[in-house]
Amino acid sequence: MLNIGVLGAGHLGKIHLRLLNQSDKYNLIGFYDPNSKNADKVAAEFGYKKFDSITQLINAVDVVDIVTPTLSHHDCAIEAIKAGKHIFIEKPIANTLQEAQEIIDLAKQYGVKGQVGHVERFNPAFLATRHKIENPMFIETHRLAEFNPRGTDVPVVLDLMIHDIDVILSVVKSPVKNINASGVSVISETPDIANARIEFENGCVANLTASRISLKNMRKSRFFQKDAYISVDFLEKTSEVVKMKDAPEEPGDFDMILQNAEGIKKQIYFDNPSITANNAILDELETFAEAIKSNTNPMVTLDDGTNALKVAHRIIDCFNK
C-alpha cells in the first residue's frame, strides 16, 4: 500500500480523508490544514493524525493529495515534487498556466507522477457511455448550482465549467479553433454565470453554460453525432443513447420510423447502457495508485489538467474584451 497524506481538510478534503482511510490501496498517514482550529476539530472527530506543517506531512508519505484552495495548488505541488512525492491535485491544476507548466516540468524532472481531480471522468453515467461517443459534432452542456460561498474565490469557469471542458476535450480529438464567451458577476467579484462556444478545427461545436446562482442543480451534457444522440446526466448518474439506422423494408407495428424530405427512412432505437454504481472520487484516487504501481499514465494527466485550464483561461479572457 502507498502511504498518502492530505493537504487541506475543508469540505472536499474531509471526503478525501474518509475515502482514503477505507481504501485498500492506500495507507492514510494523516493531514495538514493551516487552520489550526479546523485541524484540531477534524483530528478529534475522526481520529486522523494531524501534522503541524506541510513539510512534515510531505516527508512522511509517498503520495500527496492536494485538496487546498486553487491559489495554493502550485506551491504545495512544487514542494511535494521536490521531495520526490507523487501528487494528486484537485481541479483546476493551478491558478495560472505558468504555474501549471512549472508543475508539469518539475514532475518530469523528478520522475514523479501526477493526476488532476477531474472527477466527472469517473462518473458512472459517463463511463457507461464514453465508448459510444464517436466523433461528436455538436455538444451542449449545462452545469447549474445553487449559490454556495465556497469556491467563489475563482470565476465560475474555474469552479464549475472546467469539469465540462475536461470531459469535452477527452472526447473531441481536435485542436480548439475559436472561442467566444460571456460572463456576468451577480453576487461575487468574479463571474457567477457564463456561456461559452468552443469551435474545433474538425468542425465540432460545443456550447457550455455554467451558473452558481441557479435555483436548481443540473449537470447535463448532450452529444450529437452521425446517427446518434447521447445524453449524460452527471447529477442523476443516468444516460440515454438514441440511435438511428436504415429502416427495414417492412417495419414492425412498434418500430419508430422517421422519413426526411428526400424520402429516406430511418428507424429510431434506444441503446441505453448498463450503469454500474461507483464512488467516483474513490475511483479516481485508486486508479492513481494503480498508475503509480504499474508505472503507467494516470487517467487524467497533468497535461490533461493543463489543457482544460488553457481553454478555461481563453474563455475568461473573452469576458474582458
From TrEMBL:
Residue ranges annotated for the Gfo/Idh/MocA-like oxidoreductase N-terminal domain, each copy included: 2-118
Pfam families: GFO_IDH_MocA, GFO_IDH_MocA_C3
GFO/IDH/MocA-like oxidoreductase domain sequence ranges: 153-216
Family matches, as InterPro entries: Gfo/Idh/MocA-like_OxRdtase_N, Gfo/Idh/MocA_Oxidoreductases, GFO_IDH_MocA-like_dom, NAD(P)-bd_dom_sf
Matching Gene3D superfamilies: Dihydrodipicolinate Reductase, domain 2, NAD(P)-binding Rossmann-like Domain
Domain of life: Bacteria
Name of this chain's protein: Gfo/Idh/MocA family oxidoreductase
Organism for this UniProt entry: Flavobacterium rhizosphaerae
